[in-house]
Amino acid sequence: PRRSMALAEQAKRVAAEFDFCDDAVGKAVKEFIREMDEGLEKEGTELSQIPTYVTAVPNGTEKGLYMAVDLGGTNFRVCSIQLHGNTTFSLTQSKVAIPHELMVAKTSKELFSFLAKQIEAFLKLHHEDHYVGTVKRRAGGDENQQEEIFNLGFTFSFPVHQIGINKGMLMRWTKGFDIDDAVGKDVCALLQQEIDELHLPVKVAALVNDTVGTLMARSYTSAGKTGTLLGAIFGTGTNGAYVEKLDKVSKLTKDKDAGEYDKSTGEMIVNTEWGSFDNSLRTLPNNPYDIELDKNSVNPGIQMFEKRVSGMFLGELLRLALLKLVKDPSVPLFTDENSASNDVHSTTQIHDSSPIWKQWGIDTSFLSVCAGDHSPGLRMLRQTLDRDYDISAVSAEDAEAVREIAAAIGRRAARLAAVAIAGIVINTGRLGKSSATATTAQKAGVEPQRGDVDTDQSDEIDIGVDGSLVEFYPKFEEYMREALRAVPEIGAEGERRVRIGIAKDGSGVGAALIALVAGRVE
Ligand code: ADP
């Protein structure tokens, strides 16, 4: 019992290193707002605040047939989307792995002609009626015999300097891609050129960032009266895009390369690139595990917010924190001699093969297992340690220590996520927009119901989210809301007005919607 008390105390101490108190949340929100404004004015700031040239969000009544493609990593996805105009849609999709030699090809033509061929195969298979003229045109037949043109949204998840709704220069490759001659070129033009060589009836109408796709997809399917304010991703990485007042995006008028855009809505969606919020650590927490993770990363000092929030990193933070206890000579974790005395294999063992010894050895999904295990003695958690992490016969006390530390890391991530959400909700002034009916209801003492679609929506601040972390980590939203309530400018009343919904298929339906909006402008 002495050991277990000492271990419990140690675990509490490590967990407490991940505390991010209400006061700290408030300070970080102020910094987020400062960086938002700075990023809207000039280049080279911590929040990049990239203008996307998308100037309207959908309301669910949009209709039509569109195409979307997504080049983001290992796969290339092609899909067509029928928007039914009643907040619903149908989606046909195909997916193909990108051959590695094309990721590092000598010329960008090799990659982009491969992409165009996938689009052709998709059309042949699913949209024969759109494809018929292609063959004739290719044979030198009647060029005027045109079938309907498909407008296509191109989700391209690499850093680009966007200068128009379908124009953006590749700044650099990431994620294992490396094709020199593409850098500095307009990726939409590269794709269009290959599409044209195949005489396909397809126009690259929009260049899409995945967060903007999430925002658009959510706005279409939720059909709120005011439209969705923010699309946010909490997956491998984290990022958000939101609806900003056009006159606040002042750097757009200073960009000599900036192309034309529609000014009629007075708004533009801005891609924050918030993964790099507060890289200089003015307000972000920075404990010994954060420091070590950053030091051993490929990009020290960069993406500091992301390194505390997203799926790629939370498992590693847990691994580093657990190792601290494993190596603690006073009460080493996972060395319980007589754990569970009724268990035959009573001695806990961390096998040499355990991934816990290796960088990135623990996956963030393990945090979800820990947070979701309500069984007596944390059976699931212990089973997972045994099966996936080669740590066998873990005692209940040790399991509890793991659970506590994992929970602290998950909770801190969600509270940090709330910083970004709060900053955007406050800085866009959405809290001030409260409808007359809602005010009357509040005066009459009627509690607005959270998440209920049938209640008056005009008072709601709608947020679309996507990514495994927010989707599968139990209580991620609850922890986020707890932190939102703690921000003085939001409080319990403001938090209640925030509606959060999962937006699936951002790179499909979202890209289609951007292609649609782009088509309207011309
Ligand atoms: P991506 O962001 O790459 O499009 P996902 O949204 O699926 O894809 O995010 C993948 C990330 O989510 C990985 O870092 C993974 O560790 C993490 N992850 C996967 N499953 C879970 C889970 N059940 N709970 C928490 N995190 C998860």
UniProtKB/TrEMBL annotation:
The keyword Transcription does not apply. Residues 11-220 form the Hexokinase N-terminal domain. Its EC number is 2.7.1.-. Pathway: Carbohydrate degradation; glycolysis; D-glyceraldehyde 3-phosphate and glycerone phosphate from D-glucose: step 1/4. Residues 439-458 are annotated as: Disordered. Residues 230-517 form the Hexokinase C-terminal domain. It comes from the Eukaryota. One of its GO terms (cellular component) is cytosol. Keywords: ATP-binding, Glycolysis, Kinase, Membrane, Nucleotide-binding, Transferase, Transmembrane, Transmembrane helix. One of its GO terms (molecular function) is glucokinase activity. One of its GO terms (biological process) is intracellular glucose homeostasis. Belongs to the hexokinase family. This is Phosphotransferase. The chain holds residues 100 to 621 of 626 of the full protein.
